[in-house]
């Protein structure tokens, strides 16, 4: 079919021409379409770029406007936390002085307080940095457009860093907690022996059947026992310290009253017997460190002379020779406390001093039926602390004022001479019944004294003694 000529067909030249027109038209249409598509795509990309640019500008502008307020707020929060922690920690640190001895517990709180104060007092700064939104250029040469670069200033953070303030506050809280826990333990360790002293005073004073109001001490002991039962974690150290002080003061004051009563009663009884050291030439012979076998010989001499004496006994010897201690008391002599093992009391801690005094008093009471009320500290070694502990154990401290040095000379004649040379009304004569040479001298010493019109008394009756 295609090979047969078509009579209606145009001439070949016209046909060719028409084909070109058709082709050209198609091409133009295609190109125009492509151009439209390309322009549309470019436009959309540009719109997107503009939107991104504007969003970024809005973002940095907002950041610039609000960053300082945010940084200030964060700093203020951190500062408030830190200031609160300092205010909580400072009293704990102050109160722990003389209470928490371990520097490993207390020093970290000291350091944390120093760091906290340093940060709290540091001048705050808000360093600024710039944020830039890059310029955007439209690549289309027909619609040349450019969005300019935008630069704003933004506060990045506060100096000091709020995080550092918070961390310093955390340190303060944890180190203060450790000190507070150590304080609670300390308070319990303080309260326990004071409670024990209160109980000891209640028992001792009740046993003496003295006319003393014990209600306040009873209440304090009950309160303290409740605190101790509740456990260390529940302890309020300040309340425990007040309770400790109440117990100590009340025990001491009741004992003080009782000791004064005993002295007054014994002096009144002596006056009733015709001895008054305010007018008489009183001398007290005192014998330390027994009772030992030699003490029995001394007792016979004293009995023959009808002379009273005072025996400051070592508890350990009382426990070994209770029957001698008993014989001393039965002989009308005054039995007193000279510690358990003859140490220098000032070198011992409180608990050890209490133990030295109480065990001796207990041994004497067990052996003789009567608790002693005088203490002569070995070597005369005493200070305010030991005196206070003695009072709270129901003991008055008594030293001496005439030293025979019998332990050194170990010579009966020297011992006798030492007394004769130094004696005066009110003399409290120190001797030791553990030395035979001393016991040998006693009969002659008594004769010498009586020849000089001295009156022999137990040491508590002397009016110019230690008290
Ligand atoms: Zn002694």
Automatic annotation (TrEMBL):
The keyword Hydrolase applies. Residues 43-70 form a coiled coil. The keyword Metal-binding applies. PROSITE patterns: NODB. It comes from Isoptericola haloaureus. It holds the Pfam family Polysacc_deac_1. The chain crosses the membrane at residues 20-39. Keywords: Coiled coil, Hydrolase, Membrane, Metal-binding, Transmembrane, Transmembrane helix. Gene3D superfamilies: Glycoside hydrolase/deacetylase. This is Polysaccharide deacetylase family protein. SUPFAM superfamilies: Glycoside hydrolase/deacetylase.
């Amino acid at each position: 079919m295609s090979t047969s000529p078509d009579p209606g067909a145009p001439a070949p030249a016209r046909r060719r021409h028409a084909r070109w027109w058709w082709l050209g038209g198609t091409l133009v249409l295609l190109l125009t379409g492509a151009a439209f598509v390309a322009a549309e795509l470019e436009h959309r990309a540009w719109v997107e770029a503009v939107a991104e640019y504007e969003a970024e500008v809005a973002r940095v502008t907002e950041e610039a406007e609000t960053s300082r307020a945010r940084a200030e707020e964060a700093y203020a929060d951190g500062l408030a936390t830190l200031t609160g922690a300092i205010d909580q920690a400072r009293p704990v640190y102050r109160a722990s002085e003389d209470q928490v001895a371990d520097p490993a517990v207390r020093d970290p709180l000291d350091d944390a307080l120093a760091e906290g104060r340093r940060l709290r007092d540091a001048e705050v700064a808000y360093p600024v940095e710039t944020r830039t939104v890059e310029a955007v250029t439209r690549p289309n040469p027909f619609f040349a457009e450019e969005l300019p670069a935008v630069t704003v200033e933004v506060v990045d953070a506060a100096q000091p860093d709020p995080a550092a303030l918070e961390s310093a506050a955390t340190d303060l809280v944890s180190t203060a907690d450790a000190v507070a826990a150590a304080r609670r333990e300390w308070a319990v360790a303080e309260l326990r022996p004071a409670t024990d002293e209160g109980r000891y005073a209640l028992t001792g004073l009740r046993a003496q059947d003295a006319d003393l109001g014990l209600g306040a001490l009873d209440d304090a002991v009950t309160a303290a026992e409740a605190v101790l039962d509740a456990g260390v974690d529940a302890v309020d150290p300040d309340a425990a310290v007040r309770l400790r002080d109440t117990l100590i003061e009340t025990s001491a004051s009741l004992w003080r009253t009782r000791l004064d009563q005993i002295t007054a009663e014994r002096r009144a009884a002596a006056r009733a017997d015709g001895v008054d050291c305010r007018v008489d030439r009183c001398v007290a012979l005192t014998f330390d460190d027994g009772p030992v076998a030699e003490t029995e010989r001394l007792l016979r001499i004293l009995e023959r002379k009808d002379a009273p004496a005072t025996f400051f006994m070592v508890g350990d010897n009382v426990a070994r020779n209770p029957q001698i201690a008993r014989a001393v008391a039965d002989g009308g002599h005054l039995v007193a406390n000279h510690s358990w093992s003859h140490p220098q009391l000032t070198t011992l801690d409180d608990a050890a001093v209490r133990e030295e005094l109480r065990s001796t008093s207990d041994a004497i009471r067990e052996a003789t039926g009567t608790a002693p009320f005088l203490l002569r500290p070995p070597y005369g070694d005493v200070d305010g602390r030991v005196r206070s502990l003695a009072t709270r154990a129901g003991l008055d401290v008594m030293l001496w004022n005439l030293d025979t040095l019998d332990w050194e000379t170990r010579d009966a004649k020297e011992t006798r001479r030492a007394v004769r040379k130094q004696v005066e009304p009110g003399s409290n004569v120190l001797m030791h019944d553990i030395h035979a040479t001393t016991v040998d001298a006693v009969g002659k010493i008594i004769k010498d004294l009586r020849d000089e019109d001295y009156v022999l008394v137990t040491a508590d009756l002397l009016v110019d003694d230690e008290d």
